[in-house]
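Ticket #4471: structure output looks truncated?

Reporter: J.K.
Steps to reproduce: submitted the chain below (170 residues) through the standard prediction queue, then opened the result file.
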Amino acid sequence: MLGGGFVGIIAGFLIAGILIGYVSSIEEQDRREKERAEKEARRTKRYAKKYDELIAAGMDAEEAEVKADLHAKSMDSACFIATAVYGSSAASEVILFRQWRDECLLSFPLGRVLVKTYYAASPHVAGAVERNLVARRMTRAVLRIVLKLLVSKQVLAAESKEGGCTKTQE
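Returned output as attached by the reporter:
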């Protein structure tokens, strides 16, 4: 008799654990959906603001649409690979890469194509880099060289909050 009660208690705990896990997963799914909706609302608001600014500045509607869309997306996304390498989207190196993307690359048609291509491929690369110490160190070394070149050629003003994309002197 005691054995049957013990089995019942164990079964009860198992069922309770399953139910708690199920409820937690539903709550997590709801939280993620709410975050996605809030992120999309912020992106839509940024898109509309940037689009209006570009149209007011005299840009044609088609180009303004593309540039505003890339701007809105870029504000929500960190530089995936640099973030994986430096461990935080708030790292100064990541901020400089984001500045380069927003102020330089997005200013030119070829740059916008490169950014779109980067968005498509880099999340997968970043995941692999993040999981592999050797890949992370190698990528960090390459990114360090790129940043030094950008700063030394004054493409990025590392010491200035204003920054800016300037033409390199040849």
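Triage note (M.O.): checked the attachment and the full token line is present. The first helix runs from residue 2 to 56.
Status: closed, working as intended.
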